[in-house]
Automatic annotation (TrEMBL):
InterPro entries: AAA+_ATPase, ABC_ATPase_HisP-typ, ABC_transporter-like_ATP-bd, ABC_transporter-like_CS, MetN_ABC_transporter-like, P-loop_NTPase
Keywords for the protein's UniProt record, in alphabetical order: ATP-binding, Cell membrane, Membrane, Nucleotide-binding, Transport
Keyword Cell membrane found: yes
SMART domains (UniProt xref): AAA (SM00382)
Protein's organism: Niallia nealsonii
UniProt protein name: Ectoine/hydroxyectoine ABC transporter ATP-binding protein EhuA
Primary location class: membrane
Top-level taxon of the source organism: Bacteria
Taxonomic classification: Bacteria, Bacillati, Bacillota, Bacilli, Bacillales
Domain ABC transporter: 2-240
Pfam families for this protein: ABC_tran
One GO MF term: ATP hydrolysis activity
Topology term for the membrane: Peripheral membrane protein
Amino acid sequence: MISINGLSKHFGKLEVLKDISLEVEKGKVIVVVGPSGSGKTTMLRCLNLLEIPTAGKIAIQDQTLDFSKKVGQKEINTFRKLTGMVFQNYNLFPHKTVLENVMEGPIVVKKQDKAAAKKKAEQLLSKVGLEDKLDFYPFQLSGGQQQRVGIARALAMEPEVMLFDEPTSALDPELVGEVLKVMKELAKEGMTMIIVTHEMKFAKEVADEVIFMDGGYIIEKGNPAAIFTAPKEQRTKQFLQLIQ
Ligand code: ADP
């Protein structure tokens, strides 16, 4: 369903993604781990086209972008709709209510009519356990609740793939579970997901494949049991020793 081929990203002279290639089947959950600065966030941002790759190809379903050629804004906008992004710091609109946050994308980007967008937003907010918070503003919610709004907002765009960039790392420990629970449910429903996280227990339970990145490269990938109990690469071993 997703095919990344020879992807690279430079910031000026700094190459932060180097020849990344990856295939993800529909319905699979991929967890990306690796030290800070290894390029995990940049890889997700490239998939969502918040960053434009310097070279390589990304295909999602039947749409392909080839970054060795010039890619137009229209193609970017179309492609971006295939992915939904959940950010570390939620990135909610502070002056909009919970319901409005979730309705905004479908109305503005997908040109859905307001009643349909509202109905869908209510359904999604109920799915993430926030049916009683529709008229609250983000500042009136806990971090865990805000992140669940973030997930509902991404789902409202009906993406093919959900991308999570350290969705629980800004949360107090007691709020992490409620967000992971929603993510587990999505995985169970067959959503294709790529998740950057330091939650190793979650990765072991939910991931179909774990990818270890370092220095802009994918160093190693495999099923969680293989990566966590018998990593092949020295750098993976060192990293896991530090965090486990
Ligand atoms: P990770 O998510 O693994 O911590 P990042 O993808 O955030 O890694 O960062 C990879 C590298 O790219 C780091 O060296 C970081 O400083 C650099 N980087 C990320 N974003 C930018 C940017 N907008 N401009 C310049 N350098 C950046």
